[in-house]
């Protein structure tokens, strides 16, 4: 940290002196006024701020304010807090270059500040008064506009002139944003990087009173427009498929129209229409040219989508007929963006303002031009309504976003159904007769490889079937064009072998379907139309349909102050909030698996009891399975949703233990678990060595294994299986494996339980692989002093582990906020058989 005596040094000299830029990835600060990606995105008059979460020798937060060409910097050990009563120590350190605001990464060992850095918050700030005078006086008041922090804050110097450290205090000023720490801890509530998980400005999320009124959209602000000649060509902005709806940020929500994207260029009355690929389709739509030419502008670029309305809803098949000339007068052009207008490039103007100006232009325009409306209701409500109406989905756009050509994250598409473009790779005749297609054989690209996507055989009438036939015949070829064929799909289809007629992969079809199979082909497909506007080379597999967001889980915790673990001061509120924070990681390990729960109504120092069935106190949200699932046993339970997880935690559940099988194949385990349980007093390095030896033997048996801490004393080595063998067979294998291990290395391993049999040894518990046996789930807390938890780790991390309880309820979520890779990412897609392994152990 900087000493007070260094304050007269040249700008950034202390920063450079502390670092070896041939080793550290941090910005080298060759120029104090370097322009960063972050600052270039802001208005030039804005000052930026960043808070970086830094896990060095200990976790702390680096608070930085852009001023006079540098980042004024303070190290805040406990981080910021919205509670004005909480005064947080902030040590003024050396100025950093403005480029540092974008830095995320790992500073190598033996370098200054060695450790991992993430951007915890970012945004802009405004000094309340003269910032220069405030810094000199040691009293700086300012307003933050961040993704996590907002409102008025203050930094006050508390050190004396001759102190070695320049110590300040950071605290929240009392305003509408102030909140008691007991009610809201922003550090725990929002622990992750805003680069990896952008939130949008907190002022756009809450409180509602701080959000700009929608009425302001009627008066566009075009101050960011740039005088420029009209572009001859313009590539459209494209939306990214959203796996879930955004729950924060300010978004403009529009209907996803079932049509063709079309850009209009107007130059002194001359209108040209372009597809998203840049093809001139002006001649196809004479009915649009005249009304576009009559708009009150001289030059412009407009963006929109054409469709045909049928029964009040967009219809893709009706649009196909219209394009073919059968009903061209029915085409409607929905316009949603304005990129250029009368000598001004508007692409840097915020979206809401571009749309407001576009709406003014379309005020007096009649059919077939329409303004694409947006909906002020929350996206989740609009999504539900769209699904109910049978619409394709929604387009969500950040309200303040510029117009950027290409696919971006500021435009999202949310699909209510599985639907996408696929390449036509072949066809068969209807009824074996030439002239009409009976099915289309489809594909998509994975990199430069053409992948089989299955087939579609419904969704067209006789006239369309004849039209597709005529279009495909000129492209015929002798062999299938696939680089990756899926034989299973060929068997599923009911066409006779050899009836396929293959074509060059040149034409694109729009297809709706029920699901993707594990082999990457579509099921229960229906043809919607040809996509003559999209090149085949751009067709890749998209994800699934968008999932509606989970509700906000603000659980009402009864007796939140109740102590669960007196040794660490962990309360019931701490435990429930911990499970809420790790639910995203934990639920895949819990979902559809019978569960046994350890409950601690009076804390972990008092009586504990297991609950496996529903006859004890019920917990809302848990899935109760039919008694027939496991005859002669009470109904089993599973924790399948975040509501169920938090309901259990609210009912004093500390630990979650799961079966090795799912309810779908209850008697066929899909994993083997080896629980490495050390004898009393055995050193940790022996447990680490034992895990390596177990993994080595498994590798010799051609079995891959994954590792996690138990949260207690040992480690869990987990081997995924293909769930074809019963419990008896899998348990017999695990027993044979452990006996072989103990026989081969008797000085390290024991195959017999009991304290006397494992003195100085590791007992590898194979009994957990029997029917009805359970093991602590990944991310489960443990009912032991300190409340360690079970953490999935990579094998490369094994040597760095200090104990099995390295992470606990209070520290696990902070650790996870720094992780960019899931060490178990490949676990879920790995299936293995024990056949060869069992033969080798005999």
UniProtKB/TrEMBL annotation:
It holds the Pfam family LigD_N. It comes from Paraburkholderia bengalensis. GO terms for molecular function: ligase activity. SUPFAM superfamilies: DNA ligase/mRNA capping enzyme, catalytic domain, Nucleic acid-binding proteins. Residues 1-38, 203-222 are annotated as: Disordered. InterPro entries: DNA_ligase_ATP-dep_C, DNA_ligase_ATP-dep_cent, LigD_ligase_dom, LigD_PE_domain, LigD_pol_dom, NA-bd_OB-fold, NHEJ_ligase_prk, NHEJ_LigD. The keyword NAD does not apply. CDD domains: Adenylation_DNA_ligase_LigD_LigC (cd07906), OBF_DNA_ligase_LigD (cd07971), PaeLigD_Pol_like (cd04862). Residues 203-221 have a biased composition (Basic and acidic residues). It catalyses: ATP + (deoxyribonucleotide)n-3'-hydroxyl + 5'-phospho-(deoxyribonucleotide)m = (deoxyribonucleotide)n+m + AMP + diphosphate. Keywords: ATP-binding, DNA damage, DNA recombination, DNA repair, DNA-binding, DNA-directed DNA polymerase, Exonuclease, Hydrolase, Ligase, Manganese, Metal-binding, Multifunctional enzyme, Nuclease, Nucleotide-binding, Nucleotidyltransferase, Transferase. Residues 1-10 have a biased composition (Polar residues). This is DNA ligase (ATP). It comes from the Bacteria. Its cofactor is Mn(2+). Its EC number is 6.5.1.1. Residues 28-38 have a biased composition (Low complexity).
């Amino acid at each position: 940290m900087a000493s007070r005596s260094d304050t007269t040094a040249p700008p950034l000299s202390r920063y450079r002196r502390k670092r070896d830029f041939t080793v550290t990835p941090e910005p080298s600060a060759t120029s104090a006024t370097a322009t960063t990606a972050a600052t270039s995105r802001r208005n030039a008059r804005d000052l930026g701020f960043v808070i970086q979460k830094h896990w060095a020798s200990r976790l702390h937060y680096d608070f930085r304010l852009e001023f006079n060409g540098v980042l004024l910097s303070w190290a805040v050990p406990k981080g910021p807090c919205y509670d004005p009563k909480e005064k947080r120590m902030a040590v003024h350190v050396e100025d950093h270059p403005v480029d540092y605001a974008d830095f995320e990464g790992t500073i190598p060992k033996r370098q200054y500040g060695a450790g991992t850095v993430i951007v915890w918050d970012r945004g802009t700030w405004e000094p309340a008064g003269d910032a220069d005078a405030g810094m000199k006086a040691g009293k700086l008041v300012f307003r933050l506009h961040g993704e996590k922090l907002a409102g008025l804050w203050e930094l006050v110097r508390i050190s004396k002139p001759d102190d070695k450290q320049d110590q300040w205090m950071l605290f929240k000023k009392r305003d509408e944003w102030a909140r008691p720490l007991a009610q809201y801890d922003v550090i725990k509530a929002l622990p992750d990087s805003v680069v990896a998980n952008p939130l949008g400005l907190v002022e756009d999320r809450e409180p509602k009173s701080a959000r700009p009124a929608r009425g302001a959209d009627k008066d566009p602000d075009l101050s960011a427009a740039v005088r420029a000649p009209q572009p001859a060509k313009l590539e459209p902005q494209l939306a990214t498929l959203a796996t879930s709806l955004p729950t924060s940020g300010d978004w403009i929500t529009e209907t996803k129209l079932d049509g063709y994207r079309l850009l209009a260029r107007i130059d002194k009355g001359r209108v040209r229409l372009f597809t998203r690929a840049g093809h001139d389709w002006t001649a196809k739509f004479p009915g649009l040219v005249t009304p576009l030419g009559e708009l009150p502008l001289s030059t412009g670029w407009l963006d929109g989508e054409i469709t045909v309305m049928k029964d009040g809803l967009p219809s893709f098949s009706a649009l196909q007929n219209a394009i073919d000339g059968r009903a061209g007068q029915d085409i409607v052009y929905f316009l949603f963006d304005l990129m250029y207008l009368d000598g001004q490039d508007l692409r840097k103007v915020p979206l809401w303002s571009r749309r407001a100006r576009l709406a003014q232009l379309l005020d007096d325009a009649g059919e077939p031009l329409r303004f694409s409306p947006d909906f002020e209701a929350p996206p989740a409500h609009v999504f539900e309504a769209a699904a109910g109406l049978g619409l394709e989905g929604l387009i969500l756009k950040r309200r303040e976003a510029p117009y950027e050509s290409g696919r971006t994250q500021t435009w999202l598409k949310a699909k209510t159904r599985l639907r996408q473009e696929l390449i036509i790779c072949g066809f068969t005749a209807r009824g074996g007769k030439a002239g009409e297609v009976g099915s289309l054989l489809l594909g998509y690209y994975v990199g430069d490889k053409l992948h089989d996507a299955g087939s579609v055989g419904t969704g067209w009438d006789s006239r369309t079937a004849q039209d597709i036939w005529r279009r495909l015949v000129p492209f015929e070829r002798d062999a299938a064009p696939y680089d990756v064929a899926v034989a299973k799909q060929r068997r599923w289809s009911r066409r006779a072998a050899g009836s396929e007629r293959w074509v060059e992969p040149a034409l694109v079809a729009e297809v709706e379907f029920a699901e993707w199979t594990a082999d990457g082909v579509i099921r229960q497909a229906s043809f919607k139309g040809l996509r003559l506007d999209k090149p085949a080379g751009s067709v890749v597999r998209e994800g699934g349909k968008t999932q509606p967001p989970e509700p906000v889980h603000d659980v009402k915790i009864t007796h939140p102050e109740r102590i669960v673990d007196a040794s660490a001061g962990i309360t019931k509120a701490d435990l429930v909030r911990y499970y809420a924070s790790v639910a995203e990681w934990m639920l895949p390990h819990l979902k559809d698996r019978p569960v046994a729960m350890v409950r601690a109504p009076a804390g972990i120092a008092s009586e504990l009891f297991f609950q496996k069935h529903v006859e004890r106190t019920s917990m809302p949200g848990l899935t109760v399975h039919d008694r027939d699932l496991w005859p002669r046993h009470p109904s089993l339970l599973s924790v399948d949703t975040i509501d169920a997880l938090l309901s259990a935690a609210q009912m004093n559940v500390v630990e979650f233990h799961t079966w090795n099988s799912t309810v779908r194949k209850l008697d066929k385990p899909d994993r083997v678990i080896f629980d490495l349980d050390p004898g009393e007093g055995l050193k940790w390095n022996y447990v680490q060595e034992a895990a390596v030896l177990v993994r080595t033997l498994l590798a010799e048996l051609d079995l891959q294994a994954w590792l996690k801490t138990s949260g207690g004393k040992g480690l869990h080595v987990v081997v995924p299986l293909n769930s074809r063998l019963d419990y008896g067979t899998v348990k017999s294998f695990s027993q044979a494996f452990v006996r072989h291990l103990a026989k081969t290395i008797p000085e390290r391993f024991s195959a017999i339980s009991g304290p006397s049999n494992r003195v100085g040894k590791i007992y590898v518990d194979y009994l957990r692989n029997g029917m009805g046996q359970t093991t602590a789930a990944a991310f489960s807390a443990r009912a032991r002093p300190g409340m360690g938890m079970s953490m999935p780790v990579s094998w490369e991390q094994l040597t760095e582990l200090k104990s099995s309880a390295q992470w606990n309820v209070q520290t696990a979520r902070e650790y996870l906020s720094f992780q960019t890779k899931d060490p178990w990412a490949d676990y879920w897609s790995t299936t293995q058989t024990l056949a060869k392994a069992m033969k080798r152990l005999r």
